[in-house]
Request: fold
Amino acid sequence: MNKRKRVQPYFWIAAFSMLLAACSPIVTQAIESTPNSPDLGDSVAGSDSTEGNVGGSENPFEGIRLQFNPGFWPETDFSKHSIDYAEIFSGGPPPDGIPAIDNPVFEDVATANGWLGDDWPVMFFELNGDVRAYPLAILIQHEIVNDVVGDVPVTLTFCPLCNSTIAFSRTIEDGRVLDFGTTGNLRNSDLVMYDRQTTSWWQQFTGVGIVGELTGTKLEFLPSQIIAWSDFKDNHPEGQVLSRETGFTRSYGSNPYAGYDTIDSNPFFPVTGNDSRLLPKDRVVALRVEGLDVAYPFSLLSELGVINDVVAGQPLVVFWKEGTQTIFGNSGVDTGSSSAFLRAVDGVVLNFLEINDGFQDEETGSVWNIFGEAIEGELKGTTLEQVISAEHFWFAWATFKPETIVWAPGS
Reply:
């Protein structure tokens, strides 16, 4: 990755905006509290309620010192919301100031290899046999890609402030297909998206509508992984790669958040939680099975290579592999990459070990890769069922999932 310690202007705009919001009533909207103020007591810190609206007065902002500008959103129904408006902060840019990619262009592996380093992180996404890589060097500059993969409308998202890369189907329950942009706002330091069809606001971390007509609507999560470019090109040489031909002028490969992932540093914007079980920016592999949330710290995964676990009665395995550089560091720090799978094949629960450049099950001796594919041995050609998981900074997962279990040896 480009080694220049270059910080994009919008990052410092965000910092300046935060300072002003804390110190000056000029940039906030202070509205006098009255007996008719909306009752925000049903808003649960760290979660997105889907039980209806919070509010009910003619002025949904009554009694709240706003840290964002509702004037940008004349068509959004602010009377409908499931969160406390006091939790939303302007990140600095206006709506679409960080522009989503709506017409993605792709290139082949050979072309992309001319600018991607072997250890650069890419978002691996496959649907209906359509295999694609979305370099974080591009996603960090845009945060949202609206795409169609395997004939399915999808949205690929990356919130740099939470280190959260999440894929969604953008077809909602009533059959409408949405496309998303950035509001320029944050909640619990996480990207707040909006859909262009209803101008409702969505929490990227949870995929839930939090403001507007579609409050309470949930997007379907789709499985994805962060892997090294070398793993993608070696295992999927026919795959497609998001091109830098985005229609925008950006310095792809430079780092707009240099040093942001310093492990003991606090998040840039306020969050409602403060879980000290891990350091704020410890990386975790996080997943949810049958209503149970579990976080696997990278600090343990990097030592063990493999974790065999049972969550809510489901045997699963988490793989970790070295060789993936952090998108935030200009020093080439290797944070590795991860993946999670169910570990039962034809009714047999497999137990995995780390071996050189891969993984091996004890039951058949078959060799597996980071994609959950058996590449040698008795089970060659078998693919494990992927568990939807994502890599996050600890503070983000703990804020949105405060009841999470933190895996430890013997737990």
About this structure: The first helix runs from residue 9 to 23.
